[in-house]
Design a protein that fits this description.
single chain, about 300 residues, alpha+beta, Immunoglobulin-like, 5-stranded antiparallel sheet, 4-stranded mixed sheet, 5 helices
């Protein structure tokens, strides 16, 4: 009897000794480190173990800029200028960047201090008037009454620019901190440039989808649309001049030279922060005369 009890005890001990707890089988897996895992990106993170889709690049691609000189008191602006501009936004940041410029509208809060210099350099004598990279949409200026015609004219000019050699590309990143828009920019020159050229980077804050009154011409006369939607209205820039800030010296620029800058633009409390975009324009600025658009980009 004692032997049986002893054997049972030994068997019990053996069974207990061989049993594993759940902790013995647990495999500890470290949490992934999220970030950009592409070494060719602007924000490569060597410590990242899982790509989070945030990689940033400077695209080697030309985008033209569409400027719409308009006013709230202008009936044709409301009838076909605005709709034509809105239709062109289907090409936004693919073929073009685009902004409206008001200088004498009501309410005065629609106007931007940069409008006067823009109008003077572009020799705007009437509104609505469209310019693609500084060239009027039609000979003699103005905008056609046909939205389709205006859209096609803008697209043709933008395509022509897109097919040109890319001199430089731009990357813009934006963030809002309280009442300030913080902007980081990177400009990469793909083509070497001779000494003596002046390149300026302008960054513009534009506000989209503003609801305000607009005069509209109709077949039966002029009406006031109090719920008109104003798209991509120029609000402010990174300098007192629309030409922005010079980024290079007088020295020659070698191919693959990059210029990095940061800017802070104060925001008006009345602006809808959720609808703010930033347009970056690289200008070649001569000693006298109107600057030339080198390239543009938009950060939404």
């Amino acid at each position: 009897m004692k032997k049986i009890i002893l054997l049972f005890a030994i068997g019990s001990i053996a069974i207990l000794g061989c049993k594993k707890t759940s902790l013995d089988n647990e495999i500890v897996v470290a949490d992934p480190i999220l970030g950009c895992t592409d070494p060719n990106s602007l924000n490569y993170n060597a410590d990242a173990t899982q790509d989070d889709g945030t990689c940033q690049y400077i695209e080697q691609k030309n985008r033209a800029i569409l400027l719409d000189f308009s006013e709230t008191w202008c009936p044709p602006c409301g009838a076909y200028g605005g709709p034509s501009f809105d239709s062109c936004l289907y090409m936004e940041n693919s073929l073009i960047t685009a902004m409206k410029i008001y200088g004498s509208s009501t309410p005065a809060s629609m106007n931007c201090s940069l409008s006067s210099a823009f109008s003077n350099d572009y020799q705007v004598t009437g509104v609505p008037d469209f310019y693609v990279n500084g060239t009027g949409l039609y000979a003699g200026g103005g905008v056609a009454a046909s939205t389709a015609s205006n859209y096609n004219s803008v697209k043709n000019k933008a395509n022509a620019f897109a097919n040109q050699t890319v001199i430089a590309g731009i990357n813009i990143q934006k963030s809002i901190d309280g009442s300030n828009m913080n902007i980081s920019s990177k400009v990469l020159f793909y083509q070497a440039q001779p000494a003596g050229k002046a390149y300026h980077l302008a960054v513009y804050v534009v506000e989209d989808k503003i609801i305000a009154s607009q005069k509209v011409s109709t077949a039966s006369g002029t009406i006031t649309n109090t719920n008109y939607v104003h798209r991509n209205l120029l609000r402010a820039g990174n300098a007192s001049t629309y030409k922005g800030v010079k980024i290079n010296t007088t020295a020659a620029i070698e191919a693959n030279k990059r210029f990095d800058n940061t800017f802070t633009i104060a925001l008006n409390s009345a602006w809808n922060k959720a609808n703010l975009k930033v347009i970056g324009v690289l200008w070649e600025v001569p000693a006298t005369g109107k600057p030339t658009v080198v390239n543009t980009v938009m950060a939404k």
